[in-house]
Design a protein that fits this description.
Chain lengths: ~260, ~500
């Protein structure tokens, strides 16, 4: 080969390589940093906005297990849309819609909904099991709730707040102040497989809970919320009630004084 | 006679370049200067030429208007074949140029090359450094993305701190009271005409002086520079023990410059162009603007300075630094050149290099600024949620929802403005945590009005669980007393006098 040929061959090989898409530095299509409202990837949206509370891939978070096929089968799109856009009243679920002070557009919320369905839904896994509806159809009867609690919940959560069961109390005043009837209902119905909480069929040994039972116990639970929840020292006796007794024995003065 | 020879002769008759060029090329240099340490100056020049060439090519496409600048870069990145590569070459060329110029400067300083008779060469060099930095800054502005936009905002607020004329300066710099189209036009003019013009002129002068005064000889301990004898000594060195610049010394320069160009090209091909990042829209506030690499250290220093020191620092330190550099050859213009006999010089360079490296490294991950989407994006690792009660889980929800995570890492994720809380329960009792959360303090906001009592209890209960299994949570002994209805714990055996001999 004459030198000229070598140069031509080299250029012929190098130029397409340079122009080709194989070089790692070549910018990916689309802007490097899209406008925040132009992000439409479910993974990005979920990881940036939800994973902090609902956990990586929808499980093992502090808030509800969204990657639960039973939950996905129970809940309808409209409810999801409403919760994500406006938050869940009385709980720590924030509102995400731009118009409600959040940072997501309506289109992005739709991406989240369809993405959850696609990633975590497994079709209608509850078909034929006749679950109670996702939303309560009538107000619960508080007076019947305690019996349901004793039958369905006390085993794990204890009979009273002072005697928490192995799974920890749900009668604690601060806890009750941070949930609402719907979150109780959702948790009973769909369970939290990621932390071992059963669905509505596993709470009462031997039979599934009925719609009425779920509704009543949710209402009863919320009714247990104390008037002033969240006192930091629930065990300390108020000083004013029995002034004489409340004084620590160590500083009691001699009676003759 | 071949045609090109006659063309050459015709031109040479009229321009008469051959003599001076030959003289410059063949001038003798001390043998010791044909060293790998002497290649940075020529490499800077080659990089400057690269920047001019790529800059002109970019100028063919770039549109210096607020509405089109960002788009024209996007077109270069995506629509023009190899447009991205051109941008990457220019961007990486700029980074390499700043780096090589700084190395050149450090080398010249350590080799005592600024001493008599090369004082002016050094001073011109300082202005060339300032021009180079000016090119880097104005170039970053021309990218006109979010970083550029906010970078300009910061630059303007620095200007605004100048006493008395601050307002006018800002107006002058931005071409109006706010960042707008004419701001960009101004920076375009600076980046394309004013600074490069000056830089090229200074470069000519700098190189001219290097040729006229001769390249600095390799410093020898004990060979003292004296005004009376230096020139004569140098000429002896160059002529007796010298070699012609071409080809004796030049091949190392050529080799190194080629290697640098290759390095720029490889970086460009592998890492690609810089930005443009998000569009410069002031309504997008979910952005973390950062200056380019070489200005990161300023960013760090300003973040660490207490607010009342910022203005003095910004207005006093740069002039002092420049004055010190300019004054250097007048203060230390003669004497020892060798670094073996100039410990202060060596340690200054090391000190500055280490400071710069540390500040830059900090600037890359900005531990002082909250991470604004950690609250909703940073997962709490599963082991920090295992076996927690329902209340404690709600506490973790509060922890996220109140955005504590933006400042506090857990499991290595989250902001670093406050301490990591992985083991906070071993350090603070429940009461201390309640106090910290409600009243804040030490750069932490007070959450007293943002947390309901129930939220506070849940949150603190959760924080109380954050301790390793082998170390219990810190507890307040007086709580135990209250819990026992005021009963005092029984005396320990030591308090009862256990182990002591009974006295009768």
């Amino acid at each position: 080969m004459r030198p000229n040929h070598i140069v031509v061959t080299f250029l012929g090989m190098a130029l397409p390589l340079l122009a080709g898409c194989d070089l790692p530095g070549r910018p990916k299509p689309g802007p490097e940093v899209p406008r925040p409202e132009a992000v439409t990837s479910f993974d990005t949206l979920y990881n940036e906005n939800c994973a902090g509370c609902h956990g990586a891939s929808g499980q093992n978070g502090s808030a509800t297990n969204l990657a639960n096929p039973k939950y996905q089968a129970l809940v309808d799109d409209a409810s999801l849309r409403d919760v994500i856009a406006h938050g869940e009243k009385g709980t720590l679920m924030p509102a995400f819609d731009i118009r409600s002070g959040g940072s997501l557009t309506g289109a992005q919320i739709e991406v989240l909904i369809s993405g959850m369905r696609a990633h975590w839904g497994k079709g209608n896994v509850l078909a034929g099991q006749n679950p109670p509806p996702y939303k309560a159809t009538h107000p619960g009867d508080v007076s019947k709730g305690q019996a349901v609690y004793t039958a369905a919940c006390a085993r794990c959560h204890g009979v009273t707040a002072q005697h928490p069961g192995p799974a920890g109390s749900i009668l604690d005043g601060s806890f009750l102040a941070l949930i609402n009837e719907q979150t109780v209902r959702t948790t009973i119905l769909a369970g939290r497989p990621d932390i071992g909480e059963p669905d509505w069929q596993g709470h009462i040994p031997g039979r599934p809970m009925t719609d009425d039972e779920v509704t009543d116990v949710s209402a009863w639970l919320i009714a247990q919320k104390p008037a002033i929840p969240g006192q930091p020292y629930p065990n300390a006796k108020p000083m004013s009630e029995h002034p004489a007794e409340a004084r620590p024995a160590a500083v009691k003065r001699p009676t003759g004084d | 006679m071949p045609w090109y020879k006659s063309v050459y002769d015709w031109l040479e008759r009229r321009i008469q370049f051959e003599g001076p060029v030959k003289e410059a090329v063949l001038h003798p240099v001390p043998k010791s200067t044909a060293s790998w340490w002497y290649v940075f100056g020529s490499a800077s020049l080659v990089l400057l030429i690269l920047q001019v060439v790529t800059g002109i090519l970019l100028g063919l496409v770039y549109m210096p208007s607020a509405a089109h600048a960002w788009i024209s870069l996007d077109v270069l990145n995506h629509d023009l074949p190899l447009g991205w590569f051109l941008r990457a070459m220019h961007g990486w060329g700029s980074n390499f140029m700043v780096a090589v110029v700084l190395i050149h400067m450090a080398q010249v300083f350590l080799f005592g090359a600024y001493k008599f008779p090369r004082e002016l060469t050094w001073i011109v060099g300082i202005f060339m450094l300032l021009m180079t930095l000016g090119m880097a800054f104005t170039g970053q502005v021309l990218r006109f993305d979010q970083d550029a936009y906010w970078g300009l905002g910061i630059g303007a607020s620095i200007m605004g701190r100048v006493p008395v004329i601050g307002g006018q300066l800002v107006h002058f710099m931005l071409g109006g009271p706010i960042i707008n189209g004419s701001t960009l036009t101004r920076f375009f003019t600076l980046h394309v005409f004013v600074i490069p013009g000056t830089l090229l002129a200074l470069t000519g002068l700098h190189v001219w002086m290097v040729l006229k005064l001769g390249i600095n000889e390799w410093p020898m301990p004990g060979r003292i520079v004296r005004r009376e004898t230096y020139v004569q000594e140098y000429n002896e060195l160059a002529h007796k023990d010298g070699i012609p610049f071409v080809p004796g010394a030049v091949w190392k320069d050529l080799f190194f410059s080629a290697a640098i160009l290759l390095a720029v090209a490889v970086c460009a091909a592998v890492f690609g162009p810089f930005g443009p990042k998000g569009v410069p829209d002031p309504t997008i506030i979910s952005t973390v603007p950062k200056p380019d690499f070489f200005f990161l250290w300023i960013y760090t220093v300003l973040s660490f300075l207490p607010p009342e020191l910022e203005t003095p620092f910004l207005l006093i330190v740069p002039p002092i630094a420049i004055a010190a550099l300019i004054g250097l050859p007048f203060v230390a213009g003669i004497g020892e050149k060798s670094w073996w006999r100039r410990p202060v010089a060596v340690f200054s360079v090391m000190f500055l290099a280490i400071c710069w490296a540390v500040f830059t490294q900090l600037g890359t991950y900005t531990p002082w600024s909250p991470q604004m989407n950690a609250w909703s994006g940073a997962v709490i690792p599963a082991k920090f949620l295992e076996n927690r009660t329902p209340l404690e889980r709600q506490g973790a929800n509060v922890f996220q929802e109140k955005q504590c995570r933006n400042c506090h890492a857990v499991g290595g994720l989250g902001g670093q403005r406050g301490p990591a809380l992985d083991e906070v329960a071993t350090r603070l009792t429940e009461d201390q945590m309640i106090r910290q959360v409600l009243l804040g303090g030490g750069n932490m906001p007070a959450y007293g009005s943002a947390l309901s009592p129930a939220e506070t209890s849940a949150l603190v209960r959760y924080l109380e669980t954050l301790h390793p299994h082998y170390q219990p949570a810190a507890a307040d002994a007086s709580r135990q007393v209250v819990g026992q209805g005021g009963g005092v714990p029984a005396d320990s055996t030591v308090q009862q006098g256990g182990g002591q001999t009974a006295v009768h």
